[in-house]
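hey so i finally got around to running the thing on that chain from the lab meeting. sorry it took forever, my laptop kept dying and i had to restart like 3 times. anyway pasting the input first so we r on the same page abt which one it is
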Amino acid sequence: MKKIKILIADDHPIVREGYKKILMDTTDMVVSDEAENGQEVLNYVRKKDYDLILLDISMPGRSGLEILKELKGYKPKLPVLILSIYPEEQYAVRAFRAGASGYLTKASAPHELISAIRKISAGGRYISSSMAEKLTYYLNADAARPLHESLSDREYQVMLMLASGKTVSEIADEICLSVKTISTYRSHILEKMKLKNNAGITLYAVQNKLIG
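ok and heres what got predicted. didnt touch it at all, straight out
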């Protein structure tokens, strides 16, 4: 039996171990390599062939979406399953636009991860039924877009973090960028979304069900 060769990309060793333990119980999958940041992912993919990549959306430095876009630039057919702590409503649309074959939250059951890997490696896409209808709307180029759709992926990430109550300094530390850079992103967010302050960002995010 040909096994599905998988590259796991997550900056937390304990999370990678968890995925490996789940996949070890299958007969048709093997974890070929592990990466703890985006650059390692790119290095591995340039040197070796994989059937599928499990890619965490939140890694230090360059985000999973940035890495996904670069991957798709030179290996457009390589299936990528995005794994995230964030609900589908926050990132699934952006992940699919960037070329992902599937999106799964880390709260999902192990059997769902296995099902997603099998479906994607066979050439399909994996998404929950609850998101299917929303994706049809958001991926339609003619559909009217909400204001947050005008943000870049990084601006969107910063917007969600500001909306959750994190300070500019806390965000800078978490995603390994300077305070000045995060402040610039914040200014762009306020301008594009026609908001005045962080309170406005939080209210917008709550009203649009981007955060609880």
